[in-house]
Amino acid sequence: MATSFMPQDDPDAAAAARSASAVDHGNPRPHPDFARHITRLSSEGRLCETVHDNGNPRPHPDFARHITRLLQCRLCAIPYKLVVTLPCGRSICRSCLPPSYVRDWITYPSAPDRHQVIQCPFPDCGRVHAVKDCSSDVTLNKLATMVHSVVARAWTEAASLGFIKESPVLEPMPEIPDDYEQKHLVVDTRFLATWFLATQSLLDYDDEFHFHVTHGQHTQAEHFDIGLLQTLQQTLRSEVDCQICFSLLYDPFTTPCGHTFCRHCLMRAYDRRECCPLCRRPVDIDRLLKPDACPSNDCITGLIRTFWQDEVDARKEAFVAEGMATRHLIHIPLLVCGLSFPGQPMYVQIFEPQYHRMLENVLNGNGKFGMVMPLDPERLGDGFHPIGILLQIKNTWYRQDGRSLVELEGLSRFRVLNWYTHEGYTVGVSERADDVGVEQEEAMEAAEVGYDASDSAAGGHLYQFYDTRDEEAAATAPFWTSWRQFGSDMPESAVDLDAMTTESLMRFALSFVDRTREKKVPWLTEAKLMTYGECPDDPVLLPWWFGSTIPISNPQKVRLISAFTVRDRLKICGSWILEMRRRTRYKEQRAEPMGIFS
């Protein structure tokens, strides 16, 4: 055969290798030993042609192994047909997905469709992926289908031109039955030879492939390869456009539903609605699409950089020119005075002239501004904490003394990266600050609680306990005294909170609220409940309500709003409960409200 294949770490294996091809009823069928009959020669040539087509260099035949590898499954090494892209950005055949198992120790989010998971087959990833997040890759499946079609037509054409032929075997292999006519399959075109070996499971993903061409065929075969690769370049181009900006995918990211977009385009789409722009399926991923949490599609990225690098460079220059290469930044007027929380109401009085101007400008715009906590409440000019809350104006009342009373509602968090002064007030150059994705949230609980966790922590049995215990005793006993009957399940420290499931942490906080309402503590009045509403049983909303109603210091508010997982915020609420319990042990019967870490 004219082609040669052998792993790089075994250069002498070719001398002892053999190959045979069998003809069965006139149809060539490669024998499994086919791959071992080849000699290796070093390849020569440029990485790409200098002739350009639509601004992109034509791939040189030396790219044959690289392109084939991009389209090979990393596990079975067969060119893709039914492709699944994992949340870690790597793609494999659907048939190569590891067996799934039920992960029922994760309590948040408790969606049943996230209990079925797989262990990522790539050791350098090590993540656990929900089966729900491992969908068929729509774009990559289309590309793979096109490649198979183009290669099939090229194979027929190459055979008619004499680049694919059979030659007799000089030394027949004794293990081949006598009714098989043993022949070599000679392939003189580099890409077709490489692709053929891959389709026959004779070229592992990490193997290299070097070959020489039949005497007199080098120039013609190279021109054939160039034409074939140019056909692939032109054919595949229509499938690598982003369906949001309709330009070549730049930093392509594949959503859990299997659709691929530019990372920046998807970020902007998420600002309006947290779902896939094509199929409208809700997508629970990191809102900022940080590359460490949401890696790019490795295969599509490689194909784009191989075939259309000039277009990639042009898109990068455009992104840099527009200032969008890394972040989607927003300019937010800032009120430096305190903090609120998402979904929670707030009332502020505005009396300073610069903030009156800010209020007027905001009311003439979208009615939104930001609030940040000063580093030193006594010296507002000394700076502020970078994490703030975006507020929506609900109502405004103007008083005769010049003050304005503004009713606000917290919307979302942001992080101030830089700031400047406009008409006397501060404007922050900011980016959204959102929670991590669902997969990171699940991984955090699994890491802290462990695989043997169950809902046997204190909060897990709390409601059953209250249903069976004496109601009169419950009304007189302190909250933490009633927990003594749980023994070691009673959280005593931050270490104990770490070991509780996320659901148990939520129940711990809910039970504390129930007991303090029964005790009619001064800081949880009916008036406050009318303002902030009843305690929510949603683990996302509970910490924000808790932080708005419990008497905590400003540093603790900053601590809560700076936590970017539901689990971390629930643990912070649990630490406040433990602190109140500790203080009450030393100051029992104190009538005045107790601020946390005041």
Automatic annotation (TrEMBL):
Q: Where is the composition biased (Low complexity)?
A: 13-22
**GO function term, MF aspect, one:** ubiquitin protein ligase activity
Domain (RING-type) spans 242-280
Pfam families, per the entry: LON_substr_bdg (PF02190), zf-C3HC4_2 (PF13923)
**Which InterPro entries does the record match to this protein?**
Lon_prtase_N, Lon_prtase_N_sf, PUA-like_sf, Znf_RING, Znf_RING/FYVE/PHD, Znf_RING_CS
Region (Disordered) residue ranges read 1-33
Q: Which UniProt keywords apply?
A: Metal-binding, Zinc, Zinc-finger
Check the record and name the PANTHER family matching this protein: LON PEPTIDASE N-TERMINAL DOMAIN AND RING FINGER PROTEIN C14F5.10C, RING FINGER PROTEIN 127
State the superkingdom: Eukaryota
Q: Which residues form the Lon N-terminal domain?
A: 329-581
Q: What is this protein called?
A: RING-type domain-containing protein
Lineage runs: Eukaryota, Fungi, Dikarya, Ascomycota, Pezizomycotina
